[in-house]
Design a protein that fits this description.
By secondary structure, the chain is an alpha/beta fold. It has one domain: 3-Layer(aba) Sandwich (Collagenase (Catalytic Domain)), CATH 3.40.390. It has three helices and eight strands, in the order H-E-H-E-E-E-E-E-H-E-E. The strands form two sheets. Strands 1, 2, 3, 4, 5 and 6 form a six-stranded mixed beta sheet that branches. A two-stranded antiparallel ribbon has the order 7-8. A hairpin with a 4-residue loop joins strand 4 and strand 5. Helix 2 runs parallel beside helix 3. The longest helix is centred in the last third of the chain and has 19 residues. The chain is globular and about 45 Å long. Pfam families: Imm9. InterPro entries: Imm9.
Length: about 160
């Protein structure tokens, strides 16, 4: 993978859940998500955005579904587009790997500004596996449908 593609598209993985970093290795999960992005990057028409970059912001939160924000955010001063994705973190009654502390937080449902995907918590055996596979599914969904960046639709070739 060329450095040019590595600099063209990447992910960050913040969390709205306090102390969630105590439950999973954020650095490892983020690195694996970025590996997935670099695997798919050659299949995207990233040359159409010239010297701009895409940041995929994958936010862990207490919500009901996986969400892909319908509109990309544009930051002209940084020449960066931001694609926002929301990943729900389950409690222990939703998944065997769920977190009991999630019950202490109120659920924030996705708004109409998101495309939603079902989380299918039962398909996974660990929180890390759920986050990685769900993030990959959301990223793939976004680029299968395409995201508009400066009037150009970035999608899989």
């Amino acid at each position: 993978m060329s450095n040019e593609l590595k600099n063209k598209i990447r992910a960050l993985t913040p969390s709205q859940i306090p102390n969630f970093q105590d439950d999973i290795d954020f650095d490892e999960v983020e690195a694996k998500i970025n590996e997935f992005i670099q695997e798919i990057a050659p299949r995207l028409n990233l040359q159409d955005i010239k010297d701009w970059r895409i940041l995929i912001n994958i936010l862990y939160r207490v919500t009901d579904e996986i969400g892909v924000f319908k509109r990309i955010t544009r930051y002209p001063s940084d020449k960066e587009f931001q694609l926002s994705i929301s990943i729900p973190i389950p409690n222990e009654s939703q998944a065997i790997y769920g977190l009991s502390k999630i019950k202490n937080y109120s659920l924030t449902p996705l708004t109409a500004n998101f495309y939603s995907l079902k989380p299918n918590f039962e398909k996974y055996s660990t929180m890390e596996e759920f986050i990685l596979k769900s993030s990959a599914a959301a990223i793939s969904f976004a680029f299968e449908n395409g995201v508009s960046c400066n009037g150009k639709k970035i999608r899989f070739n």
